[in-house]
């Protein structure tokens, strides 16, 4: 049933666009009642978000052997999803709903963002184990440096994001993460120690 609901939502978003999408349409296309949809998703925006961005299983997290390579592989995967026309229409609506609905915001934080933070935690842990980072960094900051920048480029500044920019974002994020690790490792309070 979950697959039918998400597939129906994706098809309808492609056909009518996010603004014209209704939960009634999705229910009719999937052959389920509206209650079945609302048991799974708190709103139309959450349903559309899952269907277009998080409903499809991403490939396994790449282990390229370097922090930069891992971040580049991750941001390329997210770029494909985030740059899709449906995602560009959906992101502002979802952000608006998250601001107005604390319960939805909590669900979003505890599910989608928690999964993304776990990916960043894995990337950072591997980089520390390889000796690329002086110590661990808060995955939330790493997430903000990389995917926050991508989201701003796509949804706020409306830049044409190509692979050169994606590579530059990964390079900047890797440098920022390394600088944070060095800063935090040299002094737990954040001030660099004299050498």
From the structure above, extract its key features:
disordered C terminus, mainly alpha, 9 helices, Tetracycline Repressor, domain 2, 195 residues, 2 domains, Arc Repressor Mutant, subunit A, elongated
Describe the structure.
With 195 residues, the chain is mainly alpha-helical. The protein has two domains: 40 residues, Orthogonal Bundle (Arc Repressor Mutant, subunit A); 131 residues, Orthogonal Bundle (Tetracycline Repressor, domain 2). Helices cover 74% and strands 0% of the residues. The chain has nine helices and no strands. Helix 5 packs parallel to helix 8, helix 7 crosses helix 8 and helix 8 runs antiparallel to helix 9.
Secondary-structure blueprint of this entry?
Elements: H1 2-16, H2 23-30, H3 34-40, H4 44-54, H5 67-82, H6 85-100, H7 102-130, H8 139-156, H9 163-186
Helix pairs in contact: 1-2, 1-4, 4-6, 5-8, 5-9, 6-7, 7-8, 8-9
Q: What is the compact description of this entry?
A:
By secondary structure, the protein is mainly alpha-helical.
Question: Beta-strand percentage?
Answer: under 5%
Estimate the global geometry from the Cα principal axes. elongated
The assigned CATH architecture of the largest domain is Orthogonal Bundle
CATH homology group of the largest domain: Tetracycline Repressor, domain 2
What percent of residues adopt helix (DSSP H or I)?
over 70%
Largest sheet: none
What count of domains describes the coordinates? 2
Number of strands: 0
Structural class: mainly alpha
**What is the CATH level 1 assignment of the largest domain?**
Mainly Alpha
The unreliable regions are 190-195
User: Helix segment count?
Assistant: 9
Mean pLDDT: 87
Give the SSE order as H and E letters: HHHHHHHHH
- By CATH, the topology of the largest domain is Tetracycline Repressor, domain 2
């Amino acid at each position: 049933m979950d697959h039918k609901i998400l597939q129906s939502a994706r098809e309808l978003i492609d056909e009518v666009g996010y603004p014209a999408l209704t939960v009634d349409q999705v229910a009719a296309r999937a052959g389920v009642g509206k209650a079945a949809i609302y048991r799974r998703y708190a709103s139309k925006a959450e349903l559309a978000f899952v269907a277009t961005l998080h409903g499809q299983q991403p490939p396994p997290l790449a282990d390229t052997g370097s922090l930069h390579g891992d971040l580049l592989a991750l941001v390329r995967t997210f770029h494909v999803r985030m740059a899709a026309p449906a995602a560009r229409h959906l992101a502002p609506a979802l952000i608006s709903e998250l601001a107005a609905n604390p319960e939805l915001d909590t669900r979003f934080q505890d599910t989608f963002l928690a999964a993304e933070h776990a990916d960043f935690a894995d990337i950072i842990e591997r980089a520390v184990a390889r000796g690329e980072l002086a110590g661990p960094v808060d995955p939330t900051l790493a997430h903000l440096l990389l995917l926050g920048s991508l989201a701003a480029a796509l949804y706020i500044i409306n830049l044409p994001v190509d692979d050169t920019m994606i590579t530059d974002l990964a390079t900047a994020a890797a440098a920022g993460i390394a600088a944070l690790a060095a800063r935090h490792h040299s002094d737990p309070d954040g001030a660099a120690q004299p050498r």
